[in-house]
DNA sequence: TATGAATGAGTATTCATTCAT
DNA sequence: GATGAATGAATACTCATTCAT
């Protein structure tokens, strides 16, 4: 069989094309208003082909979210914290990369899709929470605990609540820039860093 | 016309029934998955009656959002700030009432509907921004400016960004409690107050 | 009871208003596209009132046609033929009045309603045939027989066919002016008289 | 694409099936009373298939009329008139074929559909006038002018009016046989020929 | 008697999904 | 594997008709 390898690549490539076309459509039109036929057409494929790769339209949406989760998975790791760096600096440093490309990487789109369609896809909300949201919050909580241990933060703080406070500007800006005030976007980086400085009083 | 008075009451009551049934359905199922027939049935009315009050399903959704906006309109007013109260205390005090009933008053539902359906209803997003979001942010910015004038805050802060920081925990908690982690709700009040204290360093 | 008489008049007047409003609507929009509510509104009445006078929308249409048939009933009578007038002259003279106001009297509208809606209202087509179409043709046939007897026409003619030939320009013009070429109406009188002259070779 | 040929044939056949089933329904029930589902069923197809071929029920009706116009287009041509044949004979000869199959060819149905539904489909009335009615009348007028030139007719006649007179029996019979007196049909051929003889006095 | 709010049967239309080619 | 013609369940919406006032 001369090009079995190629065929596998081809398949992966076709799958990719479908997912990207579907993602565009879901972002622009939402799940309910996206038509399988239009996605197929945008992917340069026939309708039937979509169904060779995904059993149902729901499965296609799950495939898109799965893809985004895998693609954008890049968790902050508390174990990477060097001894000679403050927790605040570490968080800021680590988040610069992550936060600066939150829109271009598709992570903002993913989050907004979870916000808008999550109610109807509890399974995906669960997945997002398990793979992205909760791990991130837990790593932040670990870092906060380390900060308390190092006396960079008072022991009186509630780590769960403070983790949410660190997270809050990210969601605020995703809502602000992506839904409510698209023509005057706020700079997430500025907000995020300022917020960390306030929390760590530094 | 003798029974005109009754008739007006009756129609207002029917309209109310429709809106409340529709609201429940939109919150639970989203717009696309809500069926007009089911809403009518839940309201104890015939399908046709819905269409006597709203031309289309879209118009019904707009009616629901309009209703929520009118119902929940209760803006913070910077002019109410007493001389003998700090801006931080004023914000906290004013927001206690507002924030404590954010779920029960329907304001959280409204916000989440805007998040989930707003893309497909730009007109409603505009309305929400004009009536709720922007006025709130602007009043907060005025208060921040007063705080700067009173030297409760350094003049170096960016009032637009800081207003968003004050807002951020509210959206964070609406997302956290309403979408992602429904079984372990975070106490918005705690988060909000703590955040104000951090910002005002008090 | 002071104004029972008035009440009867009022009732007849209301009925008249309904029929005229309905007629306008049926002519302009056809039966299927005419809405009872719109007819009521055009008549300055409530929807329910229509149903006090006509059981159903179909009955309303029948009422309109009945009204037109009664209103416009003005048959040519062969017994009116004077001895000292040719049949051709008699037909022409009698039809001048009838044909000249065929549009303004509503007879053309009635005929076109029968054409356009008759298939769905066989009862009305029957009525029209019995009250208008067949009597007219039969009187014309009687006149043609008299003309044969008087040797104004050869005995070889087929009176049924010739009656239709006399009728033909009327329908031709109703179709031409009313449906196909509204902006360049043909003068029915000219056509009708010329046609009679051709048939009677005079 | 290998099966493209087959596919094209198949779709043409399906389109034909739809049009014929729709035509039957429109003739029997009229446009408003024809149900898309019933037409689909009569065509041995699913409802959705109709909508793959015609965007709306209105478009389906237009498709049917278009089809009839194309199918039945067979105009009399004045240029075909031989020198050694009278105009009257030419008209009679040419119309024998055309008129004798006016019912079986669908032309009568088409004309009656225009009569009954034309008011609601001005576009189709226009099309019918442009493609069928006006060309026919114009060719007849040309022939009448030739007849005048050849002195087969006096120059005093009005060609436009006389063309309508020639046409009149056709419409008269379509109305008579198709709407009013279906059980005693008149022989169109007899009427048409007799009428031409009267007009040409031959 | 007149009204118009309420009703729900009836219909056009959409679109995810199937499957023969 | 890829295709797109065919399908029909599902749904928004209409409007003749009823009936309480």
Automatic annotation (TrEMBL), chains A, B, C, D:
InterPro entries (alphabetical): Homeodomain-like_sf, HTH-type_TetR-like_transc_reg, HTH_TetR, Tet_transcr_reg_TetR-rel_C_sf, TetR_C
Ranges where the HTH tetR-type domain occurs: 12-72
UniProt superkingdom: Bacteria
Xref: PROSITE patterns: HTH_TETR_2
DNA-binding region(s) in UniProt: 35-54
Keyword set, alphabetical order: DNA-binding, Transcription, Transcription regulation
Protein name: TetR/AcrR family transcriptional regulator
Biological source species: Vitreoscilla stercoraria
Phylogenetic lineage: Bacteria, Pseudomonadati, Pseudomonadota, Betaproteobacteria, Neisseriales
């Amino acid at each position: 069989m001369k090009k079995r390898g190629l065929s596998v690549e081809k398949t992966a490539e076709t799958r990719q094309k479908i997912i990207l076309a579907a993602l565009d459509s879901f972002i622009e039109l939402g799940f309910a208003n996206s038509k399988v036929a239009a996605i197929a057409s945008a992917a340069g494929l026939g309708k039937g082909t979509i169904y060779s790769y995904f059993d149902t339209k729901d499965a296609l949406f799950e495939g898109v979210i799965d893809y985004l989760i895998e693609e954008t998975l890049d968790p902050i790791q508390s174990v990477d914290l060097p001894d000679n760096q403050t927790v605040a600096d570490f968080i800021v440093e680590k988040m610069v990369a992550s936060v600066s490309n939150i829109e271009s990487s598709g992570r903002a789109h993913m989050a907004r899709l979870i916000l808008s369609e999550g109610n109807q896809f509890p399974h995906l909300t669960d997945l997002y929470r398990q793979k992205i949201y909760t791990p991130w919050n837990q790593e932040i909580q670990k870092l906060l605990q380390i900060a308390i241990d190092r006396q960079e933060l008072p022991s009186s703080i509630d780590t769960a609540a403070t983790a949410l406070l660190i997270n809050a500007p990210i969601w605020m800006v995703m809502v602000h820039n992506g839904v409510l005030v698209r023509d005057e976007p706020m700079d997430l980086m500025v907000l995020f860093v300022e917020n960390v400085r306030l929390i760590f009083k530094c």
